[in-house]
Automatic annotation (TrEMBL):
Matches recorded under Pfam families: ECH_1
Protein species of origin: Sphingobium jiangsuense
Protein name: Enoyl-CoA hydratase/carnithine racemase
Recorded family membership: Belongs to the enoyl-CoA hydratase/isomerase family.
Record-linked SUPFAM superfamilies: ClpP/crotonase
GO MF term list: catalytic activity
């Protein structure tokens, strides 16, 4: 995995790979085209293909995990061809993450308001006391929540709370996330990264084949659900975006 990424700082040590999301060295920002949307799927694919990896850590930079959008990236002209690219990258984001055959640890600090489902798909999820989870990118912004959040959040929260969460943009703070089972531990911010590495080192010291088969078993139902529902969700999200564009230009 030698590819350079503009939005992901990669550290490798003793079979552990840490992915630290960032925007020009600060807290990560999202763009629905390029940036993290494109690079994360590629990074996950590279890790999945690397037989030397023993554990993976996903974390952020600065005060927030990923709280908003990169407004400095000009959107390309929206078209069916462009949405095909977005669909493919959106599929790769989640399916390539789940294709990683070693345990994944997420360390979430501050606000995770855009694609918070990515760290929550990790096997061990750690949160700082300042962490907050929400989906600010879809329904409350007039966008269909079809890029996997429609699968992950109702699965994690239950059908009724999951739908409420997506439709209202509700924020869930760290302690409530712990009580709901979204995260496994809540820690002071200055302990978060160290604790992630403690878990990663403990996992990396275990028999590789046991780790691999454990990961495959624990992610099997997630892969099945997303394989069944992700592409339809992305297609419907794209149809609504393109329809809205046609109405505004009509």
């Amino acid at each position: 995995m030698d590819e350079h990424f503009d939005t992901i700082a990669i550290t490798r040590q003793d079979g552990i790979v840490e992915l630290r999301l960032h925007h020009r060295g600060g807290s990560a920002l999202w763009a629905p085209w390029g940036g993290l949307h494109r690079e994360l799927g590629r990074a996950f694919a590279g890790i999945a293909a690397d037989a030397d990896v023993r554990a993976v850590i996903i974390t952020g930079t600065g005060e927030d995990f990923c709280a908003g959008f990169d407004t400095g990236v000009a959107p390309p002209p929206l078209s069916s061809a462009m949405w095909d690219v977005i669909l493919r990258e959106g599929r790769d984001l989640l399916m390539n993450l789940l294709a990683i055959e070693v345990p994944v640890i997420a360390a979430v600090h501050g606000a995770a308001f855009v694609h918070a489902e990515i760290p929550l798909l990790a096997d061990i999820v750690l949160a700082s006391e300042t962490a907050r989870f929400a989906d600010k990118a879809h329904a409350i912004a007039g966008v269909v929540p079809g890029d996997g959040v429609h699968v992950v959040w109702p699965m994690l929260l239950g059908p009724n709370r999951g739908r409420y969460f997506l439709l209202t943009g509700q924020e869930i703070a760290a302690r409530e996330a712990l009580s709901l089972g979204l995260v496994g531990e809540v820690l002071p911010a200055d302990r978060l990264t160290d604790r992630a590495w403690e878990h990663a080192r403990a996992i990396a010291a275990r028999p590789p084949l046991a780790n691999r088969y454990t990961r495959l078993l624990l992610t099997r139902h997630l892969k099945e659900r997303l394989a069944a529902e992700l592409e339809q969700g992305l297609t419907m999200e794209g149809m609504a975006v393109l329809a809205g564009m046609n109405i505004s230009h009509g």
